[in-house]
């Protein structure tokens, strides 16, 4: 059971690291290239997270 729990935790941390690196990359693109498309993606993602939290609460 420990191997399964460790594997699940490792996969979750790997997914979190992937999301974190892509968020940082997107922020750098927004800051240094003024990419409007990336700004729209981040705005939509923030809106979705806010709406999801409101729906859950």
Automatic annotation (TrEMBL):
Organism: Sphingomonas rustica
Name by which UniProt lists this protein: Uncharacterized protein
UniProt entry keywords in alphabetical sequence: Membrane, Transmembrane, Transmembrane helix
Lineage: Bacteria, Pseudomonadati, Pseudomonadota, Alphaproteobacteria, Sphingomonadales
Superkingdom: Bacteria
Record-annotated membrane-spanning stretches: 12-32, 39-56
């Amino acid at each position: 059971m420990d191997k399964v729990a460790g594997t699940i935790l490792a996969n979750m941390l790997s997914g979190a690291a992937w999301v974190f690196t892509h968020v940082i990359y997107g922020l750098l693109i927004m800051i240094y290239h003024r990419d409007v498309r990336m700004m729209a993606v981040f705005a939509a993602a923030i809106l979705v997270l806010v709406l999801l939290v409101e729906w859950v609460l």
